[in-house]
Amino acid sequence: MIPYARGVTDERTDRVEPTAGPIDPLEPWPETVQWRPVSPDLIWVELVRLAATIAVFLVGLGIGWALTGHRLFGYAMAALLALALWRVGVIVRAVRAWGYAEREDDLLVRHGLLVRRLSIVPYARMQFVDVTAGPLERAFQLATVQLHTAAAASDARVPGLRPADASRLRDRLTALGEHRTEGL
Amino acid sequence: MNDPGQWSDGAAAHHSPGPAPESAPWAVTGPDAPPPTEPRKRLHPLSPVLHGAKSLAVIIAALSWQTLSRVGLGWFVAIVVVFLIGALVLSVVAWFNTGYHVVGRELRIHEGLLWRRTRAIPLERLQAVEVVRPLLAQLTGLAELRLEVVGGGKTEAPLAYLTVSDAAVLRERLLALAGRRPPQAAAAAGDPTAPAAPAPGRLLHGVANRDLVISQLLTPQALLLPFGLAFVVAQFVYEATWSFIAVASTLTAMAGVLLQPARRVLVDWNFRLACDDTGLRVRQGLVETRSQTIPLNRVQGVRATWPLLWRPRRWLRLRLEVAGYGMPDPQENPADRLLPVGDLPTAELVLAEVLPGVRLAALPLTAPPRRARWLHPLAQPTLGAALAEQVFAVRHGLLTRHVVALPYARIQSVRVVQGPLQRRLGLASVHADAAGGLTAVAGDRDVTEARALAVELTARSRAARATT
């Protein structure tokens, strides 16, 4: 074990000693960090996207069914609808799982249902900030903020922000990142 | 920022479907928007023409000779013209919606009609601003302004095209705002691969050519060579159906496999590592002697590798991860090879120059908990992570062992990832990313430890940043 963690985990039994509540590795600073959710309207953006994709496939299968009259196309359409229903549930939960928090020196972003991810990106490492918004996002008054660092693996993207929040976050990021460093 | 009004409209906080009011941050030109501190500028009106001309070659290449022979020249020209007009219209729309301006101490570039993007680049982060004039731009008297930020290999923000004078003025202005040194000095600093003077500083280490050859013979490719040759000979002798062409093609394929160790020997021949106050100097090569200088402040991390076949001789290889503006493509750059082959004392000696105070043998690596065996039945004891004094070090690999050492000051971001199986087992992985694609992964640590690692890495990298 790494020294500072000694005493929390027993070496022989490998059992985690009960502490206050279950330990979430994605909550490094549970007392001080205030997580902010993304806008619930992102659910609608994702649902419209899903509906469009499903509709394209349904039309294709429907045409196939009409032309051949084969029953398999009907089954495929039913399966597709079931998949769509399952995806709806996943989307609702996935959007609720997105969250970001601004600490004094870094931005925290967490997301993911099956594979959960937390990114901690220091403002001082920022190279540039992108604010993007596609047509669908703009229809729902949303924007995405992405923070880029010199490392390609850094994953600091916050979707589903209100334009005001997006510009506030962008300005805050660039203001805090303005140190005389190279960002390396 | 000193940019009131246009970018932050607090009233837009409620949801209203329908066309977005122009107060959004991605709004390009709002008729009712208050003027920003500096009006947004467009690129030169000829830009879409140049972009369209560039797409001409792409269109012709995409249509190919086959189309030309099928439809005849007249139709071919007609198709090209239709596509070209389409490309031109798109370029004009893109030009109309592209704008840039300086807000405070950052440059903002707006792009896109449907998918809008606003890129904010703090000018402190600019490594260099280059005025580039490709052929087409030279013919029309225009220039492209390239803003280089560190880390990425590609130019992230080109402004194409501006008039030459505009480009020069904007460049001076951006550099002045960024508080950079005069451009000549910056350009010299950003060119670390200039051919070094033949007189190197203190010689640190030279790799014996005998060791180099042996090490490259101890690779899977070289060991498989006799079997391959025997196979070819046997086929040739016993099977009359094998033609000369079949043998030749087999040999060519084998040469391709063999090429890598042979090239390594050629490139790393007479490997000499020296150091002076500017950085490390590497001289190597049999056919073509290369000498390169690696500035030590550009070193992002070190990767040590113990291949399985080298283990009887206790040899290892050291590689550097170097990043920064002006560095050549890492794939083609042999300068990242700090030590092609060597034993542990040699490696420690070399490493002491690059990362002072770091010793490979003394890293306090600890394995993840035993229940990580469910995910790595054999490799669990070989996994390791350590918070050393100056570096975050991780070890992985059952057969070929890797150790990655990442100085805290070089950590760009810290990530915690937990997959479904890891959640069930109470494990999580901690990634520390450095520029140039180097990532140190502490895999499958106990959740308590993973959380502590993330906290500690964040704190240590902040502290290390503050002191450098």
From TrEMBL, chain A:
InterPro entries documented for this protein: YdbS-like_PH
Return the Basic and acidic residues bias intervals.
8-17
Spans through the membrane: 47-67, 73-95
Which stretches does the entry tag as region Disordered?
Answer: 1-24
> Has keyword Lipid biosynthesis?
no
Give the UniProt keywords, A-Z: Membrane, Transmembrane, Transmembrane helix
What are the residue boundaries of the YdbS-like PH domain, all occurrences included? 95-173
| Protein name, as recorded | YdbS-like PH domain-containing protein
Automatic annotation (TrEMBL), chain B:
Low complexity bias: start-end ranges:
10-25
A Pfam entry, by short name: bPH_2
Q: Which domain of life is it from?
A: Bacteria
Q: Where is this region: Disordered?
A: 1-44
Query: What are the entry keywords?
Result: Membrane, Transmembrane, Transmembrane helix
- The residue ranges crossing the membrane are 74-96, 212-234, 240-259
Q: Which residues form the YdbS-like PH domain?
A: 95-174, 270-327, 387-454
What protein is this chain from?
Answer: Putative membrane protein
Which species is this record about? Micromonospora pattaloongensis
